[in-house]
């Protein structure tokens, strides 16, 4: 049980630290913490209290340990169904009126308060009145399961993390429902000793999910910080490189023009050709470093109110010549007004579309699908192609500056990192879902609150 205690409280800490402002994470962390409180009660009951008695601890110390056991046990029995249901309500994003949503935590606490007031206090044989608690704890857990499973999840963005969440949270919750609430009403007491196995299994799912596809946004958070730090390093590096090369290219051009004038004055045709080649190379160098700097500089947004649907449609119209033989489908929710940097967002969207066209070039039946859809908290811009797709290694590096899978010259591998940077500047992010042979789906998520989105 000591293992269960450390694991559940460690998971709670990770969830809380990863996104402390998210109500979903707060309630899920509290659910994990309440499970750890039950493990603490078991450790006190089976180990620490007997050892304290055996060691001849004072009555006061023994009484303190017993009260810790009682509080931990009650917090676990009453907290598990309550926190799980509050998590499920927040996670499912049910369209609940604001007044009811604000009152819901207090309303769902009523059964717990009544049990604390009108049922016998804790004892080691009967920590709670099982035959009473079971009538609200079991419905809470079953309702939570139904809410989580019924959540509508955009398949391109959260599907994998959603199912990892389901496998990590729901099986142990249902197992605990039988062991801690249902079986004790039939006289089978202390069945909680078997919870260790299911907690260990769900913890393994949590860890595997965290380091593969993510769990409650935590893998995304790790990736965001990695990309953000990389972009900062590249931004400062290209700024210094741009300054240094501009100075040297300026000197090349200055002396090149001087040599050109001398060649013209002395009618040295061969020298004139050589000087022209040097001047052309200097101009090319300057243009290349300017392009790199433009894609990596720290963006300053110039937000203005615009119709996002119109912005995307106009951008697509400009990109039609690049489609060539590819068919383009679009499904854009209309009327979404928001405050964004129109030019930067259009450029980021263009990069995704052009990237998709290049990936499908020469492919029979090439098809691009553009969608704009809304969730409760976000607007999702999706660019989906049926190109060759990306391998796992490519997916892990695709947003890194200067990484490219294209062999064509003149490509710096900055388009996707720039698009990611624009999304982050709008407090959103850019996600990728792809498998070899199944195409790629890029999704720009824009939080409605951050871009002040409203629908006309």
From TrEMBL:
Its EC number is 2.7.13.3. GO terms for biological process: phosphorelay signal transduction system. This is histidine kinase. GO terms for molecular function: ATP binding; protein histidine kinase activity. It comes from Paenibacillus oryzae. It catalyses: ATP + protein L-histidine = ADP + protein N-phospho-L-histidine. Pfam families: HATPase_c. Keywords: ATP-binding, Kinase, Membrane, Nucleotide-binding, Phosphoprotein, Transferase, Transmembrane, Transmembrane helix, Two-component regulatory system. SMART domains: HATPase_c (SM00387). The chain crosses the membrane at residues 70-90, 102-122, 128-149, 161-182, 194-216. Gene3D superfamilies: Histidine kinase-like ATPase, C-terminal domain. Residues 240-450 form the Histidine kinase domain.
């Amino acid at each position: 049980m000591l293992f269960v205690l450390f694991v559940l409280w460690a998971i709670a800490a990770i969830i809380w630290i990863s996104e402390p402002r998210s109500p979903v994470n707060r309630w899920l962390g509290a659910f994990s913490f309440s499970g750890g409180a039950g493990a603490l009660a078991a450790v006190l009951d089976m180990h620490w209290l007997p050892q304290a008695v055996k060691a001849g601890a004072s009555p006061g110390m023994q009484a303190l340990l017993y009260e810790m056991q009682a509080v931990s046990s009650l917090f676990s029995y009453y907290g598990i169904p309550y926190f799980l249901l509050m998590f499920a309500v927040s996670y499912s994003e049910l369209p609940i009126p604001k007044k009811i949503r604000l009152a819901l935590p207090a309303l769902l606490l009523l059964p717990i308060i009544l049990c604390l007031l009108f049922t016998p206090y804790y004892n080691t044989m009967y920590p709670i009145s099982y035959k009473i608690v079971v009538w609200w704890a079991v419905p809470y857990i079953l309702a939570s399961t139904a809410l989580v499973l019924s959540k509508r999840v955009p398949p391109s963005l959260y599907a994998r993390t959603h199912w990892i969440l389901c496998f990590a949270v729901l099986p142990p919750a249902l197992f605990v429902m039988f062991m801690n609430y249902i079986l004790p009403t039939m006289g089978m007491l202390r069945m909680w000793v078997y919870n260790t196995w299911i907690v260990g299994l769900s913890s393994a799912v949590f860890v595997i999910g965290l380091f593969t596809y993510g769990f409650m946004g935590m893998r995304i958070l790790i990736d965001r910080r990695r990309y953000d730090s990389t972009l900062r390093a590249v931004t400062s590096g290209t700024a210094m490189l741009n300054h240094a090369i501009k100075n040297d290219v300026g000197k090349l051009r200055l002396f090149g023009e001087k040599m050109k004038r001398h060649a013209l004055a002395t009618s040295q045709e061969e020298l004139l050709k050589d000087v022209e080649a040097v001047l052309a190379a200097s101009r090319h160098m300057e243009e290349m470093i300017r392009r790199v700097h433009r894609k990596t500089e720290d963006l300053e947004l110039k937000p203005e109110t615009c119709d996002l649907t119109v912005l995307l449609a106009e951008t697509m119209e400009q990109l039609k010549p690049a489609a060539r033989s590819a068919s383009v489908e679009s499904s854009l929710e209309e009327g979404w007004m928001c405050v964004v940097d129109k030019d930067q967002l259009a450029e980021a969207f263009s990069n995704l579309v052009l990237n998709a066209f290049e990936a499908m070039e020469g492919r029979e039946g090439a098809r691009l699908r553009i969608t704009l859809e809304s969730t409760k908290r976000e607007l999702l811009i999706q660019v989906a192609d049926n190109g060759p797709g990306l391998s796992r290694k490519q997916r892990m590096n695709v947003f890194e500056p200067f990484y490219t899978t294209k062999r064509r010259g003149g490509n710096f591998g900055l388009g996707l990192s720039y698009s990611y940077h624009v999304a982050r500047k709008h407090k959103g992010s850019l996600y990728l879902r792809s498998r070899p042979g199944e195409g790629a789906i890029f999704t720009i998520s824009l939080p409605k609150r951050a871009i002040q989105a409203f629908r006309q």
